[in-house]
Amino acid sequence: MANLWTRCNNCRHIIYKQDILENLSVCPACNFHFRLSALDRLRMLLDEGQYNLIDQNIFPVDPLGFEDSVKYSKRLEESKNRTSLADAVLNAEGTLGGIPVIISAMEFGFMGGSMGSIVGEKITRAAEKVLRERLSLIIVSCSGGARMQEGALSLMQLMKTSSAVAKLNEAGLPFISVLTDPTTGGVTASFAMLGDINIAEPNALIGFAGPRVIEQTIKEKLPKGFQSSEFLLRHGMLDDIVERKNLRPYLIRALRLLLNRPQ
Amino acid sequence: MKEEKDFYKLEKKIVLFKEEIEKIQSSEEKDKKTKITRLQREIEREWAEISPSLTPLNIVQMARHPQRPYTLDYIDYLSEDFMELHGDRRAADDPAIVAGFGFYRGRTAAFIGHQKGRTTRKRIERNFGQANPEGYRKALRVMKLAEKFHFPVITLIDTPGAYPGIQAEERGQAEAIACNLKEISQLKVPVVNVVIGEGGSGGALAIGVGDAILMLEYSFYSVISPEGCAAILWKDQRAVAKAAENLKIRAQDLMDLGIIDKIIPEPPGGAHIDSQQTFKNVDKELNLTLKRLERKTPEERLEERYRRFREIGVFIEK
Questions:
Q1: Interface test with B, best of A76, A129, A193 (most B CBs within 10 A)
Q2: pLDDT at B4 over 90
Q3: Chain B, nearest residue to A214 by Cα
C-alpha cells in the first residue's frame, strides 16, 4: 500500500500520489514541480492531449566504442528499457489553442536528457520542419548537457542545433524555449537560450557550469537560489517564470501575439 | 593498467638537444650550421621513436605544454600591424580573449583567440584562457565588425573551457556561447578556425566553428576535459588516461569523425620545440583555406557552413 503515498522531495509532506498526478505532477502542498516525462509533457501541452510523434525512425549507436564502468551501448539499452524511448527527446506535431506547432520535449530519464547525435538531429529536424511548413517551434528542455559518450560529435550538436533555430529568425517563425529542471551545459549553451521567448518553470536549475564544478573552482559555497529560474529571471536571462498549470495558456497567448503579423 | 608515461619525461632528450641548438646559435662558434643540422637530425630521430606511441593523454599534455606558442605568438607571426580592440560594449573587457584587426597577406583580417599567460602573474591575469561572457561578446562584436567591412575572420582556439564562476553565470555564460553559435552560423564573411592547443568544450566552440576547422597535429578538441570526464563517469581521477582515450579527442579522431577539415603538421618534438616552423605550417594551410573560401559567394558559404554541421552526427535511420 506504500505505493499509494509518496513524500515530496521539497516540503517532505507525505502526499497521496494520485493528488500529485492530478495536479500535473506538482506538489499540492508546496508547489514543487516534479520532473515530467517527455510523453507526459506532450500530453499536458497539446490540445486534448493529442500528439503525433514524428522523427521516430532514427536510433542511437555507439560511434566511439565508449566504455567507462559500463559500455555506452549497454547504457543506451538500459535507458531504452527504462523509458521505452529510443533517445532523450520526442518530437511531436499537434496544435496548441488550434495553432499548429512542433514540440520537442526532452526526457531526463534517458541518460540525463543528454544531447548526442540523436537529440541534435531531432531538434534540427524539428526546426527544419517548422521552417518548411511555416509552423511554430516549442522546445521543452530538460538535460544535463552534451553526452560525453559521443565525444566531439555531441559538442558539434550545439552548433548544429543553434544553426537550425537561427534559420527561423529570417523566416519570421516563432520559437519558444521552455526550460525545466534541470537545464545545464551544452543544451543551455545552444538552442535552450535562443528562443524568441525564454521561459522556465519555477525553481528549476538552469546554468552553464554545474554547481559542483563552480564550487570546486572558486572554493566557496554558492549563494542560496544560485542558478534557479528566479536567479536567471533577475539577471535578465528569462522572459518569465511560468507555473506548470499556466504553461499551456501562456504558450497559446504568446503564439497568438507573435503570429498576429500585420497584413 | 599500463603505466602512463608523462610527456615531460618522454621529451627530456629532445629538450636537451634544443637547448644545445640555442646555445650554439647565440655563440661565435665556427661550423654553427653543421652542428645545428646534426642536432636537428638527433631531434628527428628521437621524435621518430617517441611519436608513434604517444597516448591521447600525452597529446593533452602537449596541447597544454607551458612553452607551446599561444594566440598572440601566432598573431605576431601571421599579421602585420595588429591592432587589438577591447571590450564588449556591455560590461567589461575580458583578457582571456584577444580580438582585433591586422593585415594578413595583404588583406585585413579579424584575429580572435583565447589567450593564456606565460608567467604566473600573466596566467592569472588571463584567467588561464578561460573566458567570461564578456570575452565571447567581445569576440562576436569584432566578428560583426569584420562582416561590416567584408574581412575574413581567423580564430585561434586554446582554452581549458569557459570559466565556471558565479559572475560568469550571472552575466549569462550559456547565453553568450549560444548567441555566438547562432550569429556565426549567419555571418556573411569567411570564418576559419585553428585549434592551436586546448579545444575545451563550449568555451572553445563559442569561437571555434565556421567554414573550416584546422587542427594542429598535437592539439585536441573535446566535449569535456579528460579530468572532468574521469570525475563524472569513473569517479576516479586516476582514470584520466582512459577518459582521454575514450573521448577520441585527437586531431586524427576528429578528422575520422568528419568534424575537422585539415590537420596541420607539427615539427619534430611538437610546436614548442620549433615554433617558427609551426607558424609557417599554420600560415600555409590558413592561406590555402582562406583563398578557397574567398572564391565563394557569401550565399554559397552560408549554405555550405550549414550543411557542414548539419551532417555531423552518427545514428541509424530506418
A1: A193
A2: no
A3: B164
Of the candidates A148, A155, A193, the beta carbon closest to that of B233 is on: A148
Contacting residues of A for B163, CB less than 8 Å apart: 217
Give the pLDDT of residue A234.
97
Residues A236, B172: C-beta atoms closer than 8 Å: yes
Q: Which residues pair with B193 in a beta bridge?
A: B155, B213
Residues A103 and A227 in one domain: yes
Mutate which of A111, A156, A165, A215 to disrupt the B interface (most B C-beta within 10 Å)? A156
Q: What is the mean pLDDT of residues A115-131?
A: 98
Helices (H) then strands (E): counts for chain B: 15, 9
Residues A218 and A185 in one domain: yes
Dihedral (Cα; B241, A68, B254, B49), 10-degree rounding:
30
If you measure CA to CA, which chain B residue comes closest to A120?
B313
Residue A29: domain span? 1-34
At residue A4, the pLDDT reads: 87
Examine the domain organization and report whether A135 and A53 are in the same domain. Answer: yes
Domain count for chain A: 2
Residues 4-23 in B contacting A (C-alpha not used; CB under 8 Å): none
H helix intervals, B259-297: 275-294
Same domain, A17 and A131: no
Give yes or no: residues A46 and A69 share one domain.
yes
Residue B99 grid coordinates:
580580438
- What pTM, to 2 d.p., does this model score? 0.96
Mutate which: B155, B314, B316, vs A, most A CBs within 10 A? B314
* Of the partner residues A57, A68, A188, the one whose CB lies closest to the CB of residue B246: A68
Report ipTM (2 d.p.): 0.96
Q: Which residue of A has its CA nearest to B307?
A: A160
Residues A111 and A215 in one domain: yes
The β-bridge relationship of strands B315-317 and A58-60 is antiparallel
- Distance in angstroms (rounded) separating the CA atoms of residues B157 and B180: 15
Class of the CATH domain delimited by B60-310: alpha beta
The answer to whether A73 and A81 have CB atoms below 8 angstroms apart is: no
Contact B202 A189 (CB under 8 A): yes
- Exposure class string for A227-257: b at 16+ Cβ within 10 A, else e: bbbebbbeeebbbebbebeebbebbbebbee
Strands A136-143 and A175-183: parallel
Length of chain B: 318
* Contacting B residues, span 129-188, partner chain A, CB-CB under 8 Å: 162-166, 168-175, 177-179, 181-186
Q: Are residues A191 and A231 in the same domain?
A: yes
Can you tell me the distance from the alpha carbon of B76 to that of B79, in angstroms, rounded to the nearest whole number?
A: 6
Is the domain of A57 the same as that of A6?
no
The CB-side HSE value for B170 (13 A sphere, CA atoms) comes to 9
C-alpha cell, B68 = 607551446
pLDDT, one tens digit per residue, over B212-251 is 999 999 999 999 999 999 999 999 989 999 999 999 999 9
Evaluate if residue A3 carries a pLDDT over 90: no
Contact A157, A146 (CB under 8 A): yes
Chain A residues lying within 8 Å of B310, measured CB to CB: 124, 160, 163-164
